[in-house]
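Bench log. Compound arrived from synthesis this morning; before running ITC I wanted a structural hypothesis for how guanosine-5'-monophosphate sits in the protein. Inputs:
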Amino acid sequence: MKALIDRILKDGKCYPGGILKVDKFINHQMDPNLMKDIAVEFIRRFASTKVNKILTIEASGIAPAIMMGFLMNLPVVFAKKKKPNTLDNMLATKVTSFTKQRDYDVVISRDYLCPDDHVIFIDDFLAYGNAAKGIIDLCKQSGATLEGMGFIIEKAFQDGGQYLREQGVRVESLAIIESLENCEIKIKNA
Ligand code: 5GP
């Protein structure tokens, strides 16, 4: 997606350990126009897929997911990274955080992820696929069908994308980072 790639090249910053910071337009300050264009592109790419719900994980997946839900007139549910005392009837899994280097619980209510749901999962980044693996586990536990996974940015030099595609998951990434070596952002098709 050209507008996204141009923006990453203009405003993205490399950090040690293969981390790309996009705080200026995705992860902290957000650009709603770009977010809308991102949602439109996900909708185009998943046009042949029958879905009744958009699934994401807090926090940075929520903005693109809600844009998609709004445009498609579908509900959006986000997996929570803390177990609230008030959440009954929940499904839980453990995820290792790439950026924080620790494990955390991810939970979702069985009321909002059900056996007859057909979902697309949306997130900001795909790195090693740990969050995605947690979501696959939650979908399995709930009986929901995972129709595909969409990522704003995939880092191809980390192996989450390869793992998911080998598992037969339909993966759509709007910008694919080939390398962040020497603090130079190299993007596929840029
Ligand atoms: P994974 O679970 O695929 O290993 O990592 C994906 C999650 O880690 C994303 O939800 C995102 O929040 C975070 N993440 C992974 N890599 C990066 C990165 O390079 N930059 C930022 N800002 N977040 C990242």
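What the model suggests: DSSP finds six helices and ten strands in the chain. Helices lie at 2-11, 23-27, 32-45, 62-72, 130-142, 160-166.
ITC booked for Thursday regardless.
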